[in-house]
Amino acid sequence: MDRRPASERVGDADDSSDRVILRAIVRLVLAVAVLSALVFGIVTFAPSTLETVNDVEFVDVRDLPNPSADPPPVDEHYPDVTDPDDPGASTYETDVEPISSADVERFVHAEVNDRRADHGLEPLEWDGTVASVSRAHSQDMAEREYFAHVNPDDEGPFDRFSAVDGYCRGYGENIALTWVDRPVERPGNGDIVEYHTAEGVAEGLVDQWMNSTSHREAILEDHGGPGWDRGGVGVYITDDGEVYASHNFCHEY
Fold first, then answer.
1. How far is the CA of 62 from the CAs of 87, 89, 194, in angstroms?
2. Is the alpha carbon torsion for 68, 70, 76, 79 positive or negative?
3. InterPro entries annotated for this entry (predicted)?
């Protein structure tokens, strides 16, 4: 039995109450501290998580073709008289390969001869002079921004050839226009394609001609005129990837 005065016992009760309150305050402080630590941890690590997400690299997964094979060899470039306006080779860099107009020309020549062979026709001999005249016309169309057989000076295919040489008694011309490295509609089936190689460009150009009645007739000699024994392809590629192509045919005297 506690024999201390009541006033002392009241003091002890007060002390006990103070200790209870103090312990409650300590618990509250600890709880707040723990909660603060958790909250602080979430805030601290959240930017790290976001940075990780932002560091993910997004890769372009377009299906790109394989680079072109070596262009097939052509017959001797005879005759070799050159059009004075012949610009020579032009190039355009794609994700797959640098496309050279000279490679496109050789692929077109081979592809045309393959199509002719499918119809029982003899291959065309490569003619360097005819190719030079073709190449000059392709560049002229690009530079003067027209697309036609007759140029702004009212000169047609035979006029242009006769100004350089004169050994063809029959002459014909196919022209085509396409793009490198941008979507274009494929002739025949309407599919959307992109050309990234010299071989792909050449196939697209020949497809254009074979899906047009008059151009197909010129290639397969269904035009009612003399048959061809020579051919020359001239391609010019602009800096922004526009491709102009001229394929001229010759029947030598």
1. 34, 29, 11
2. positive
3. CAP_dom (IPR014044), CAP_sf (IPR035940)
Q: Could you state, in chain order, the average pLDDT of each consecutive group of 10 residues for the chain (253 residues)?
A: 40 47 47 36 25 29 60 62 92 95 96 96 94 97 96 94 89 95 84 93 95 94 84 96 96 83
Measured from the Cβ of residue 100, the count of other Cβ atoms closer than 10 Å reads 18
Q: Is 85 exposed, middle or buried (0-12, 13-18, 19+ CB in 10 A)?
A: middle
**What are the structure tokens assigned to 148, written together?**
């036609």
CA 65 to CA 197: how far, in whole Å? 8
User: Are 241 and 92 a contacting pair, CB within 8 Å?
Assistant: yes
Tell me the CB-side half-sphere exposure of residue 187, using CA atoms within 13 A: 18
| Integer Cα distance of 111 and 116 in angstroms | 9
The whole-angstrom separation of Cα 164 and Cα 133 is 8
Interhelix angle 198-210/101-118, nearest 10 degrees: 40
> How many whole angstroms separate alpha carbon 106 and alpha carbon 89?
12
Residue indicated by tokens 């499918």: 118
The pLDDT assigned to 52 comes to: 23
Q: For residue 188, what pLDDT is reported?
A: 76
Compute the distance between CA of residue 79 and CA of residue 168 in angstroms, rounded to an integer: 12
Amino acid at 235: V
Note the pLDDT of residue 63. Answer: 62
pLDDT for position 42 = 29
Q: How far is CA 124 from the centre of its chain?
A: 31
Instruction: Name residues whose C-beta falls within 8 Å of residue 199's C-beta, 6 or more positions apart in sequence.
Output: 68, 69, 103, 107
By three-state DSSP, how is residue 150 classified? coil
